[in-house]
Write the structure tokens for this entry.
Amino acid sequence: QVPLVESGGSLVQSGESLNLTCTVSPDTLNYHSIGWFRQAPGRAREGVSCLSLGTGSTYTADSVKGRFTISGDNAKNTVFLQMNSLKPEDTAVYFCARGFGRWCSSRYLMDTDFGAWGQGTQVTVSS
């Protein structure tokens, strides 16, 4: 079973919204944090947001704070990334990943703290 699968990416116009979904294996959300990352062409992977349903800890990058919201549904084994007021600079492949541990740091989000990754979903925002 694939541990994480992203969906919901699309081509949208600036100012519009998208809701990305990360579907995980059963029981994952009780024991692991889930992070959202993105990577634009020619740029390094960037941590966007993190959620731990087990501890209640979260993280959101300053670049998306106030526009993106992370949430989860343990019963449905899903984590969502609601993205509002999208900008062209949000264009990237978005990945969700499973943390080695249960916590999200409130100060940073590093991809080296995550051990399993989805295949990614493309988000393109036109101006």
User: Anything to note?
Assistant: The first helix runs from residue 28 to 31. Helices lie at 28-31. The longest strand covers residues 92-99. The chain has a mean pLDDT of 96.
